[in-house]
Design goal:
The protein has 284 residues and is α+β, with helices and mostly antiparallel strands. The chain has helices at residues 30-35, 46-59, 100-112, 114-117, 162-165, 171-177, 213-224, 239-254, 268-283, and strands at residues 62-65, 88-92, 119-124, 129-132, 136-139, 155-160. The two termini are 27 Å apart.
Length: 284
């Protein structure tokens, strides 16, 4: 059975009246789908079947469900679940699955190709955060009833727009037609880093305005593990890097590996927590 979220973070009711993340598609909320007269399908849309096939064959893991029949509301909320239209899919990355590092690669893949694939949302339950095409990364509310922030919530929720969900092309063909390479993503670490074992952490202290190789090394770490929404390690500690460090601090704090302020500064406590996080990732 597919999962859902019991929150309403202001999903747009008119796709033409909102600012989207650059390169991301217009978000198809339940309200928009209803206003367009789109009825509930009786089978999983072809584009979602293509996404499932691609992820499961490339990364393994388990299918937790896509199409909700009969249609239903989100848990604890009053809006209709996007699973009712079959444009959301839940994928388990552990127990069974390939592990956390691969989940981060799937997130990176989705966000790298959000435009060509019409990816409109990715919800990372264990990490207690979610990405939407209309406002980027957001911190979710830690809640055992939804799974957000829980160590056992080892799945991702991935949404495509209605048009993309009904695109009969394979994922490889959709990317190739857009001039993208389905075989790699620039949202992982630098080209030399193929897994967590290739990541090197910089020495603290780093903060906004700093530049150089140490900053690039930190950015590689942030990108590899899905804390960043930028696509290149440019060695400049700007506002986006600061936001990524803050997201990392929040994640580390949820695991008890960081007890400092969520300030986006990479100091000694952030470095210690990051090292603990990286060591745990290398053991998986």
């Amino acid at each position: 059975m597919p999962f859902d979220d019991d929150f309403d973070d202001g999903a747009p009711t008119d796709a033409a009246d909102r600012e989207a993340v650059p390169g991301a598609p217009a978000y198809d909320s339940a309200t928009i789908l209803v206003s367009r007269g789109i009825t509930y399908p009786t089978s999983t849309p072809s584009g979602m079947s293509a996404l499932k096939s691609f992820v499961l064959s490339t990364y393994s893991g388990a299918d937790l469900g896509c199409l909700a029949q009969p249609p239903r509301e989100v848990r604890g909320g009053g809006s209709t679940s996007l699973h009712s239209w079959g444009i959301a899919w839940d994928w388990r990355w552990a127990n069974p699955g390939p592990g956390r590092a691969i989940a981060d690669q799937v997130i990176a893949f989705c966000l790298e190709h959000t435009g060509p694939l019409g990816i409109q949302a990715v919800h990372d339950y264990e990490a207690c955060k979610y990405w939407k095409s209309y406002n980027g990364w957001n911190q979710a509310t830690n809640n055992p009833s939804t799974g957000f922030g829980q160590s056992w919530a080892q799945w991702l929720h991935i949404e495509r727009t209605w048009a993309a969900a009904n695109d009969a092309r394979s994922i490889g063909d959709a990317l190739s037609d857009a001039g993208a390479d389905p075989g790699r993503t620039t949202l992982t670490a630098s080209d030399e880093a193929q897994d967590a074992g290739d990541i090197e952490l910089p020495d603290p202290v780093l903060g906004e305005g700093d530049r150089g190789a140490n900053v690039a090394r930190l950015q590689d770490f942030l990108r590899f593990f899905g804390f960043a929404d930028f696509t290149r390690s440019d060695g400049e500690f700007g506002t986006k890097t600061k936001a990524a460090v803050a997201a990392m601090q929040q994640r580390l704090a949820s695991k008890g590996w960081y007890d400092g302020p969520i300030d986006g500064e990479y100091g000694p406590r952030s470095a210690t927590g990051s090292a603990t996080f990286l060591a745990a990732a290398k053991k998986k």
